[in-house]
User: What shape does this take?
Amino acid sequence: MGVEFWATSFVVTATPGTGALFTIVAGLGRGARTGLIAALGCTLGILPHLALALTGAAALLAASPVAFETIKWLGVAYLLYMAWGSWRQTGVLTLDADGATPSNGRVIGGAVLVNLLNPKLTLFFFVFLPTFTDIATDGAVFRMAVLGAVFMAITLAIFAGYGLCAGWLRQYVIGRPAVLRWLGRGFAVAFVVLAAMLAVTRQ
Assistant: This one.
């Protein structure tokens, strides 16, 4: 677990993506606590991909165009659904000062889906983890699991930072309907852009 692993994990995690955007919108719309819950959900969404990498099933996914395309288009559909919710100011990603806070389970569920329906994350674990482990040696699976757990911890820490910062910024936008409306539309456009980028992704 050298400097290369830590640096690469930090860069991959800190780079803005669907999970980071989901966490920021949740924190901005519902406060730091919801942002932290979203960060936890996004981190939990990594578990299925890590499990695929550890069991070797990721290799099957990487080799299956049908499986890849299915997950990809489900991800595109979910991103467009979140874009619609942001534009209409409904659901978990509502930017509202007086609306009811969504349940923890609903926030976590939405966050998990953000990463679960991301085929590139599975391919990332399939390609990334083995480069730091000699898979031909005994205990390789355990070492990959440890690396995966460290990657998840880094993800949680960085996303929690996003959620806390968004919660802090909330005080400056709540109570300004015009600002909230344009923020919601801006986030909606961002989700559409991410959906378009995912749609053109090739295996």
